[in-house]
Amino acid sequence: xxxxxxxxxxxxxxxxxxxxxxxxxxxxxxxxxxxxxxxxxxxxxxxxxxxxxxxxxxxxxxxxxxxxxxxxxxxxxxxxxxxxxxxxxxxxxxxxxxxxxxxxxxxxxxxxxxxxxxxxxxxxxxxxxxxxxxxxxxxxxxxxxxxxxxxxxxxxxxxxxxxxxxxxxxxxxxxxxxxxxxxxxxxxxxxxxxxxxxxxxxxxxxxxxxxxxxxxxxxxxxxxxxxxxxxxxxxxxxxxxxxxxxxxxxxxxxxxxxxxxxxxx
Length: 265
What we know:
The chain contains 4 helices and 9 strands, in the order αββββαβββββαα. It is α+β, with helices and mostly antiparallel strands. The protein has a domain at 32-62 and 81-102 and 152-238. It has a 6-stranded antiparallel sheet with strand order 1-2-3-7-8-9. Strands 4-6-5 form a 3-stranded antiparallel sheet, with helices on one face. β5 and β6 (141-148) form a beta hairpin. The radius of gyration is 29 Å and the shape is flat.
């Protein structure tokens, strides 16, 4: 075979391969337009509507994270934001949430290794904090105090996998620290699935799909939430009692001042 014939044969094979690839991509795009796109648009509308309601309600969404060097920390989820790659033909929907403590606190870390882990974590979360050394009786550094308001940035990326006709959800720091990937066939993405996702985002379910949650995990979450709500109730009652006491004290002092200002005769 001459070189020209060889090149012609290679060109024919390349053209055949390109045509096959083009047909494959066209089939995937048709499936996206007809099957996946309507579901992604419906999902985006559901999430934006959910966000609008959350802005008004501003619900308490408690969550407990086990943080490096610090241990379990009670935080509240908020700052729910949504971004999309394209509004008319979305293939990626990104959700951003911030889980933060109510107020700043000091965390003594009595180990240099643990202190290094805490520092790295706080820097990764872009937290503002103050740090000062803990020293032993020989004036050697043996740990560090960290003061700041704890927060964990949480992300969920919902994206289309055209090749396999499915939806992927990649979470970052949602089910604890770290990442997790979940996949769902496009046929699963319906109104019932939207509702499951809503429960998941509001921390009412630990995982997408209630069948994936073991009974002991569900009970643990309920116990944590119950304890959180009880602590919050006690805080509100203590605040109300303190304010009531302060009001009574102010009224008493005001009456005393009026009495003392009366003429003696």
